[in-house]
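ERR on first pass: missing label on line 2. Operator R.T. fixed the label and resubmitted. Corrected input:
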Amino acid sequence: MKQTAKGFSRQTVEELSSLCDEPAWLRQRRLEAWRVYEATPMPTLQDEDWRRTDISALALDQLLPFAEAPCAQVDSIAHLPQDLRPLLDVGQPEGGLLVQHDSQVVHLSLAEEAARQGVIFTSLQGAVREQPDLVQRYFMTRCLSPEHGKFAALHGALWSGGAFVYVPQGVEVALPLRVCQWLARPGLAVFPHTLIVLEEGSKLTFIAEQFSPELDGQALSCAATEVYLQAGAQLRHISVQQLGQQVYNLGAQRHLLEEDSRLDSLIIGLGGKLTKLFVESVLEGAGANAQMRGVVFGGDDQHFDHQTLQEHIAPDCTSDLLFKVAVKDRAMSVHLGIVRVHRGGRGTDAGQTVRNLILSQGAKAHPILPLEIEASDIRRCSHAATVGQVDENQLFYLMSRGLSRQDAERLIVDGFFEPVLETIPQLSVQHRLRQAVGEKLGLATP
Amino acid sequence: MPQPLFVIEDLHVSVEGKEILKGVNLTVERGQLHALMGPNGSGKSTLAHTLMGNPHFQVTQGRVLLKGEDILSLPPDERARRGMFLAFQYPVEIPGVKVRHFLRMAVKASKGEEPSVTDFRRQLFEKMALLEMDRSFSERYVNEGFSGGEKKRNEILQLAMLQPEMAVLDEADSGLDIDALRAVANGINKLAGPQMGMLLITHYQRILNYVEPHFVHVLFDGRIVRSGGMELAQELEAKGYDWIAGEAAV
Amino acid sequence: MVKKPVEAPQADYAQRYGFRDAEKPLFRARLGLSSEVVEEISWLKGEPAWMRDLRLRALEVFRKKPMPTWGGDLSGINFDDIYYYVKPADHQVRNWDDVPQYIKRTFDRLGIPQAERQFLAGVGAQYDSEVVYHNLHEELVKQGVLFLDTDTALREHPELFQQYFGTVVPPADNKFSALNSAVWSGGSFIYVPEGVQVTVPLQAYFRINAEKLGQFERTLIIAEPGSYLHYVEGCTAPIYSADSLHAAVVEIIVKPGARVRYTTIQNWSTNVYNLVTKRAVAYQDSIMEWVDGNLGSKVNMKYPAVFLMEPGAHGEMLSVAFAGKGQHQDAGAKMVHAAPHTSSVVVSKSISKDGGRSSYRGLVKVYPGSVGAKASVRCDALVLDDESRSDTYPYMEVEEEQASVGHEATVSKIGSEQLFYLMSRGLSETEAATLIVSGFIEPIVKELPMEYAVELNRLIQLQMEGAVG
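pass 2 clean. output:
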């Protein structure tokens, strides 16, 4: 089995590049990203962005940066390992499915209709060979560059696997494309990179899921997603994170929105030991609209840190963020949500709301929502954060109908998340998430 | 003598140290409909919430007997399972929880067993038809974005589904237009039966044009100061609560 | 929007507050900061050894601590180009007639003696580094109220002083509290005995006259159980081209059932860095209220805090900030819930105009065990033109399940519909905008004593001249 040595070094980067048989320009980019990584200090609790998230227990030098999938690439998901299959088969037609096992893509399919429309849906490594111009133009350039931060740089140096999606002008992809990433090996670090380009007026629903079984050792997922929405393009982007409780999840998602484009993003954070995820929408074309939602549910000793950005550069853009967070046991959720309106952001309409439910003594929520406004001629800019427990009046109402206190509490939490979950297009994904929420609550699913 | 269904005995209740109910006595037999009237601030809602066990209200004295058993120490869910019901004046919103799903859990809790999916559906749609409610209603979130009338109908729908033995309806008529009022009153009439006791709490005599009570009581300053039949309600309507205030002062 | 040149506020400030006296101090420490300067200040004041040592230790802390990298831009401060101690007169008096003529003229012009006669129960007046006048109403003296300058309190009430000084804001709390602890001079010391109600406000007025001066007053307030106090402070300075520094420390102890209201009208000239640490500890069922008006200074960094230490304690912060040309108002509040059933309310209103920048920076912290704690924060900002900026940095750290904390903020401009409505009733655009701004800050202004409310409204009106054209 092919793999690189433990720990990260310039040599690892070169080795990985050779292993993937890459063109010189890509090797150069990896090395440049590695240079940035080395020049960037490791984040500590003294850095504003990392003040509440301690990653000092992550032993980077003990991790393996690449491991070939334990199985060959297959045409049918029926040939994939047993434990993966129930997660993949959604029993509903899909526009395309890409499955990554550890560091490599093991399955890829695209509906005929989408292929006929000119949609490109392939592994990123495949795209490097088949669409070098497009990849060279969009990959870690204007959207998410290695300078974004320490882990974006590390990602740029060591990425493997991931997907490339390209939707030509005016094409509406009828069925969702889905990417599943399965991290099964303790001690492994995965760096999947997703690059999505929607040409003018095109339309897509994209679902990304990350899973792992419970692992007996640390692992790292350092994923990055870059999205380009050209004028009038529309994307529904759903990201589900159900990693095992040994996994560190340090990722970034960044969307660039051109004129009149629209993004509906949904982040679902349920798994992982520690998550620090950057979710950024940059509204750089007039009239763009970003709707960002999230569901976070932490239990045990889980730590979540979502850092969101709504960056209004162009006039008359709209953005709205709603995150619903529940924490129980000793879990902690940090939400650093920034709204930034540049001088050109006339007519901005920006809102953000973060609602936190604390379900047990010992759980913590730290929402921090800075507004940075440089324009005066804005339509609206507001934010709200709440932290509280389950409402006593609601409890009384439900109990007056015979529900036990515990059931009433569970029902209320379920209902807290439900309006977000029910907007997910794939019913089977919805169902799986309800089940995951229910399990965390100890609730029998309806 | 057979045991009365429901007895309130010398009930005293305080909220944050202030006494609101100052010794309420009332007996409701099966098959009886009692109307409790009173001006704002007389303690009507305090009584309703206390009977259901809202922890916000502190009982300082007295007993409440359901089928001979004092229920005051029981939590609200226990009371519900023993046959108590309260239709709320201001039902709270439970965001994200569908009416259908909630009712199913409530029926299961009060009956002690899970209703079969088909039976439950049939029964639900039957009762909704009775209350002139559209079926799509069951897919909405509990009380969220409901109009005043929809909230009240939803309360009566729960009454219909749970079939309690003792129902307290707190201001079931307030804020309703004439059509909604008629629908709610029809529902109450159809649901009332020989097995159920009902206490209808209201500020106005209006609903009594549609629902005829066997007894009418007037609550004033934390006590029941008058009891009688329908004629008492009519007298109140004609003379207003000032009349009672005047009498009580004497 | 076409802008008229805005000269009015500056011109008005120069006329009303910005005048200066020819400097004739009795003593001025040499320029810059050193342990010799610190020892000299202590020696001149005839302080006990413990205070001199505390000053010297604080100086070390100040030297070690880095400058804050957040908040306002402090790179313009040159610690070597500041006079840390300037003594204007050789003794403090209780009668305005005994104040040296040129100083008395200053305070007459600022209307302080008149205000004392009309609506105050006591006044302290600090001129540069020392308090030159202090007086308290006879009635309150009889009831055992102490209202002294802090230096006198150290001499006359050493036990009380040593018991509380530095306990709420330790010298090492932050760089500027360390600086203050090293070179402090002047300020107010107030002691209100158990159950005594000081219903008429006490006021201190702080005046900087000398150029390149650092003013480091130190205020200590002790409110015994069940007492009440309203304390008001105001401040102004001449306009110099060189910058001045004001770094005060305020410590307040609010004992069970007591209530303290602390009102500040900060109107420094726009060459003053205002870097102030204000903090109160509130015990059982007590109430601590900060009312904070920030109009002046170049860079203002001020986050009054209430530490709610025992059940039932309540903290409140009402603040209004106006950032005009060249100003950065970085103000906020800190509410720390460390006991059950504590509550806090923060209401902040800010206005940015002519390139000014206003920031709200606040923290609500709820420690585990603070069952039933309630906190609400409401920040509203008005941005009046495209050159100006508004930021909001609200931090919430909730570590208790049975607590409820809410934060809401909005940033807006003056609504064109509101303007249109008012103008359709005959108001000019400026009048209409001023009216809207006054309405915007009204919830805070109405909490001020009438005389201050009138003054604040007048200042806002001046700032608004030419705001819209």
